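New to this. Please check both lines:
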Amino acid sequence: MKVLMINGSPHVKGNTRIALDEMVKIFEKEGIDTEIIHVGHQDIRGCIACMTCKKGKNQCVFDDLVNQVAPKFEQCDGFVVGTPVYYGSANSTLISFLTRLFYSTSFDKTMKVGASVVVARRGGISSTYDEINKFFAISGMPIASTQYWNAIHGREQGEVLQDEEGLQTMRVLARNMSFLLKSIHDGKEKYGLPEKEEFHRTNFIR
């Protein structure tokens, strides 16, 4: 099993990376492979609703990191997204990346386990946590939780190492996610995936 981890911070070795690394320690003990991809420093534009990805191309019209990560996303069993908080929201570069990644990929994401990791000096955690989780929820992905919000506090680089509760929260999150990954893996072998119905899209325009 493998967990793909996204570092949505502009800082490659900042507090978001430290939080993700705390999870990696647990995943390694649980025998789960990980890969961290640094997104937050990239030049990634937003979706322009051109619908090219839905017209047979099956990838985003902008051939950048989004298309490079898409095959890794398809192959992974778990998906962790880490971000700092800016004005009560995730890093805008990360949101552009996630919007295009989730929309342009047509593969079934059902039962891939998702988890958000939020880093803040003080406030804006709950709104950012909700913002990231919506990508998972709309895709049929179970959301891993922990003993509190999936959050850790710190501003200057390395300050999160002083947040003992936050570090513990990351470790518990990784253990809970590992349990979900293994349970879903065994469940799929024994029971298969849930039955799917044809999707009926309703537009409220008359």
The radius of gyration is 17 Å. The first strand starts at residue 2 and ends at 7. The CA atoms of residues 46 and 95 lie 8 Å apart.
